[in-house]
Every structure is written in C-alpha cells, then in structure tokens.
Amino acid sequence: MNQLFGGVGTKMAVRIRLTRTGAAKQPHYRLVVADSRAPRDGRFIEIIGHYNPRMDPPELVVDVEKAAEWIKRGARPSDTARALLAKAGLRGTTRGSQSDKASEPEAEPVRE
Questions:
Q1: What strands lie across the sheet with 46-52, from one edge to the other?
Q2: What count of Cα atoms within 13 Å lies in the side-chain half-sphere of residue 60?
C-alpha cells in the first residue's frame, strides 16, 4: 500500500510547509505538501497555494479543500503554514484545537 496516502498501519511523515521561490531579496513562497525529510526547497508532493509577502496587502492564495484533505490524511502543518491556513479560513489548524488534542470529555457546566 502506498504510504503517502495513509495505508493500514502506516504513519505519515508529511508536512504542509513553505518553500521559498523568487530572486534574491524578493521572497515569494509556495505552500506545499512535502515529506518531512525532504529539503526546504526540495522535492514536494503537491502545491496547495502561494504567499507573496511583498504585496500590499500580502497576497495569499490557498486551495482550502486540498489543504483540508491533506490534514484529514494526517499531514501536519508547520507553525507558519498553520497561521497562513488559519488566515485563509481553514478551521481546526490552530494550536490546541480539537484535532490536535486527544479526545477529552468536556466538563458539565455548573447549574445553580
């Protein structure tokens, strides 16, 4: 079974992170799904968006459906990618969200 797609008993080492493109002193980033062992600007599995911080306001384009699908499969976003995905409107990517926590029973509200 292909390990990239979460076969039975496999663990994904896949991250959603930024790769830098653009000339010197002119950064432009791609939001990619990549193996965690691959170099920062090296091999990736899929491009799911791009980010240009030099625009005013900064340009952010994300395919939210693809990102949600990869997160559902087990891909873990880096801290920066998590912040950008949250800005793009993807729910459940913030630290401490229900998807990151082990399932805990919620406390009953106290009634007086």
A1: 59-62, 46-52, 28-35, 14-21, 76-77
A2: 15
Q: Which residues 6+ apart lie within 8 Å of 108 measured at CB?
A: none
DSSP annotation of 5 reads: G
What is the model's pTM?
Answer: 0.69
pLDDT in tens, 38-72: 888 888 899 999 999 999 999 999 999 999 999 99
Summarize pLDDT for 85-107 with one digit per residue, the tens.
999 888 766 555 544 444 445 56
Q: Provide the phi-psi class of 92: left if phi over 0, else alpha when psi is between -120 and 50, else beta.
A: left
d(CA 37, CA 15): 9
Domains of the chain: 12-87 (3.30.1320.10)
Give the residue among 81, 42, 88, 43 at the shortest CA–CA distance from 65: 88
